[in-house]
């Protein structure tokens, strides 16, 4: 297949080398040359507030006006036809339209206005109805198939009505990439096409945010009344800047009540007198615009033209990649003939005028059941592939393509599912899907990498007919317990008992906390029973269940520290996940972003009260176990899996050590002991509330447990897909469990509600 592709220098996108970025519909990526041009500009010029009259301010004002011209030029129009109003983004532009459109409310002598929108619209469009409702204006959702049938003209006497109505639709669906006809603009404005049969004059809002990221828009031909855009969708930088292009024929009709700095020609503070500025842009741009970001746009246009040759070439390039990927993806089959994916599309990807570079799908198993999008996202992350999942702020399209009813949406909310979370299946039915999208910097290799990922993770060698790649994660090496000092005679003494029947009465403390907590942090220990000659205490059925391994992970995402017995603290195993590595912005680093974290080997020396950290090629370094909170440590807030924790920095010495080993600026922080993180578990299997449980820097639970028998079954299941077989010990380590057990049956632990280890009791 011959592909018409652009040749983009990868050196311009150093930040994504080694990454397959397939979320261009979410945000474009900025090239190095854009940043260099912008920063050089800032070094060579002084830009002042454009509302002042000095030399630097005049330069800013003139540059902003030049950028307005560049935007109009980009969309093939002029200042005679359109005005550019800068906003914080497309959403702010839509809100501005809803607030300023000349609506006629219900209950007046004139016929009232209507706000109509295509159901395949972004949340920010649908949200406009909240404003129109407050103005007593009715909103009417229109399904795509309905607008195609609405072709009858109004009677002549009704065509003379001047009541303004607004119809909004996307030039390109951000869900499926479907491009809706731009001819609708003129058809609706002329009365040839009526969204609903009602007397009045129709105006058109064209949501172009998704469309203009990869397609040319000619406003000289398709003269919509309002066109909101976000510039990061086109250039990747700057973010937080958008614009509303307003047709000058409707601009004088727009209403505005609030007036901010720079919008008034004159006003009185002591009396109700205000006279707006003549310029529509100045009248609606409240306060000082984000002038440095606007100046960055000039460099965005320059670089985009230089790298690509224009939007038409971007359109052809991105569509060629989408067409190729769609063709291969839609033809992938299991051995039984069942499709590997279900693609949600209104087109067959044969024409770039009706289909954008977006592919929306769900992965299926051999029986046609949907695999949850969170599972697909997690697997993609392990392959360094960046996709988007969920409903993409487009519930209407999600419902239409996935067959989700209005009642389903409400039931899913009651079940705990909200927009943007990772609850991907409810009662076996998907709540969302997976989306990939291409940009001008996307390559054929990106498409191949994604397709190979799907093939390698879903098809066996015989199914695919090509060598399948094993899905691997960096190995975590064990750490010798050189620093431990325990009585070896006790190591094999205590056995594990599992209660898998009804939940028994447990101590009142567990009732209030949802987890067992000792009176003293080091009052109890978990002791591993790994001897074949030891006589276990048996549960019902007579087969023993024993502990095989105990691991703790002092530094989150770093290597495991294996022990034979260990004290239990009030947050789990003592010192388990008490520290974490953060980047220069204070954001937690994991092996997904930095695989070399698995080569950092921490071990705890309880006798000398230190944590020793080792890595190949580095001298060992130690960190005190003593909490430094009281030594004028600066307490800061960090985030771990959506919940906030209080932490403090462990100092320059260890920060330098980690930065040297990992080759990037980072720091080691520790959870502060005076403020405890609380659990945010979604499901406690009917047990008492777990919201008061104290957590370390774990994702959601104090302890993690796996069963060797379950791992063995997994090993058998995946062995056919791997180039080289995985040892059982390798697989066990990849799950990063605290407690590894030997139970007779695989996955029987999934049904347990309580576990007791000696005198300790745990809820699942």
TrEMBL record:
GO terms for biological process: Mo-molybdopterin cofactor biosynthetic process. GO terms for molecular function: lyase activity; molybdenum cofactor sulfurtransferase activity; molybdenum ion binding; pyridoxal phosphate binding. Belongs to the class-V pyridoxal-phosphate-dependent aminotransferase family. MOCOS subfamily. It catalyses: Mo-molybdopterin + L-cysteine + AH2 = thio-Mo-molybdopterin + L-alanine + A + H2O. Pathway: Cofactor biosynthesis; molybdopterin biosynthesis. InterPro entries: Aminotrans_V_dom, MoCF_Sase_C, MoCo_sulfurase, MOCOS_middle, PyrdxlP-dep_Trfase, PyrdxlP-dep_Trfase_major. Sulfurates the molybdenum cofactor. Sulfation of molybdenum is essential for xanthine dehydrogenase (XDH) and aldehyde oxidase (ADO) enzymes in which molybdenum cofactor is liganded by 1 oxygen and 1 sulfur atom in active form. It is an enzyme of class 2 (transferase). It holds the Pfam family MOSC_N. This is Molybdenum cofactor sulfurase. Its cofactor is pyridoxal 5'-phosphate. Residues 670-764 form the MOSC domain. The modification N6-(pyridoxal phosphate)lysine is found at residue 233. Its EC number is 2.8.1.9. The active site is at residue 393. Keywords: Molybdenum cofactor biosynthesis, Phosphoprotein, Pyridoxal phosphate, Transferase.
């Amino acid at each position: 297949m011959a592909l018409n592709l652009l040749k983009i220098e990868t050196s311009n996108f150093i930040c994504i080398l080694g990454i397959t970025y397939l979320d261009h519909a979410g945000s474009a990526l900025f090239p190095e040359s854009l940043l260099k041009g912008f920063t050089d500009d800032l070094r060579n010029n002084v830009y002042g507030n454009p509302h002042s009259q000095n030399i630097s301010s005049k330069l800013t004002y003139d540059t902003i006006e030049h950028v307005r011209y560049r935007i109009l030029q980009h969309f093939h129009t002029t200042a005679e036809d359109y005005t550019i109003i800068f906003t914080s983004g497309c959403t702010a532009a839509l809100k501005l339209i809803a607030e300023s459109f000349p609506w006629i409310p219900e209950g007046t002598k004139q016929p009232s206005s209507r706000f109509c929108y295509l159901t395949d619209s972004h949340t920010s469009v649908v949200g406009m109805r909240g404003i129109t409702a407050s103005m007593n204006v009715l909103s009417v959702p229109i399904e795509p198939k309905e607008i195609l049938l609405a072709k009858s003209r109004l009677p002549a006497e009704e065509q003379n009505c001047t009541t303004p109505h607004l119809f909004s639709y996307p030039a390109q669906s951000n869900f499926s990439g479907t491009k809706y006809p731009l001819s609708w603009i003129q058809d609706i404005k002329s009365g040839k096409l009526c969204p609903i049969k009602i007397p009045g004059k129709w105006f058109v809002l064209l949501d172009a945010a998704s469309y203009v990221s990869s397609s040319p828009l000619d406003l000289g031909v398709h003269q919509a009344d309002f066109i909101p855009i976000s510039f990061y969708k086109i250039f990747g930088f700057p973010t937080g800047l958008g614009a509303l292009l307003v047709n000058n024929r409707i601009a004088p009709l727009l209403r505005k009540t609030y007036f901010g700095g720079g919008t008034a020609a004159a006003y009185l503070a002591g009396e109700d007198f205000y006279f707006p500025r003549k310029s529509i842009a100045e009248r609606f741009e409240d306060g000082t615009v984000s002038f440095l970001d606007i100046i960055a746009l000039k460099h965005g246009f320059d670089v985009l033209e230089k790298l690509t040759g224009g939007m038409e070439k971007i359109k052809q390039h991105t569509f060629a990649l989408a067409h190729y990927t769609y063709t291969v993806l839609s033809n992938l089959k299991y051995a039984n003939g069942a499709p590997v994916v279900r693609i949600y599309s209104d087109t067959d990807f044969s024409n770039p005028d009706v289909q954008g570079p977006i592919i929306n799908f769900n992965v299926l198993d051999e029986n046609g059941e949907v695999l949850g999008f969170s599972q697909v996202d997690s697997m993609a992350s392990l392959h360094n592939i960046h996709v988007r999942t969920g409903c993409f702020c487009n519930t209407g399209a999600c419902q239409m393509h996935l067959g989700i009813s209005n009642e389903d949406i409400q039931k899913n909310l009651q079940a705990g599912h909200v927009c943007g979370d990772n609850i991907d299946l409810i009662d076996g039915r998907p709540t969302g899907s997976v989306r990939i999208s291409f940009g001008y910097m996307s390559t054929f290799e990106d498409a191949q990498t994604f397709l190979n990922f799907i093939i390698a993770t879903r098809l066996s060698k015989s199914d695919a007919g090509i060598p399948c790649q094993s899905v691997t994660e960096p190995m975590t090496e064990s750490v010798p317990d050189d620093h431990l000092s325990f009585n070896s005679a006790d190591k094999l003494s205590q056995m594990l008992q599992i209660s898998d029947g009804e939940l028994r009465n447990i101590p009142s403390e567990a009732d209030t906390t949802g987890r067992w907590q000792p009176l003293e942090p080091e009052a109890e220990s978990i002791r591993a029973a790994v001897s074949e000659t030891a006589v276990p205490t048996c549960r019902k059925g007579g087969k023993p269940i024993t502990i095989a391994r105990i691991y703790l992970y002092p530094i989150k995402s770093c290597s495991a520290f294996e022990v034979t017995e260990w004290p239990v603290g009030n947050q789990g195993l003592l010192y388990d996940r008490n520290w974490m590595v953060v980047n220069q912005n204070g954001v937690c680093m994991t092996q997904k972003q930095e695989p070399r974290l698995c080569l950092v080997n921490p071990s705890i020396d309880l006798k000398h009260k230190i944590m020793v950290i080792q890595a190949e090629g580095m001298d060992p370094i130690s960190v005190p176990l003593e909490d430094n909170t009281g030594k004028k440590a600066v307490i800061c807030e960090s985030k771990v899996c959506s919940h906030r924790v209080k932490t403090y920095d462990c100092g320059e010495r260890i920060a330098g050590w980690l930065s040297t080993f990992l080759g990037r600026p980072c720091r080691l922080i520790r959870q502060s002991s005076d403020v405890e993180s609380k659990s945010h578990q979604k499901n406690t299997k009917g047990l008492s509330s777990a919201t008061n449980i104290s957590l370390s820097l774990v994702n959601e639970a104090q302890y993690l447990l796996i069963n060797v028998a379950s791992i063995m079954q997994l090993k058998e299941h995946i062995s056919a897909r791997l180039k080289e077989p995985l040892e059982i010990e390798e697989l066990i380590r990849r799950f990063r469990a605290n407690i590894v057990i030997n139970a007779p049956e695989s996955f029987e632990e999934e049904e347990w509600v309580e576990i007791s280890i000696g005198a300790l009791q745990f809820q699942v």
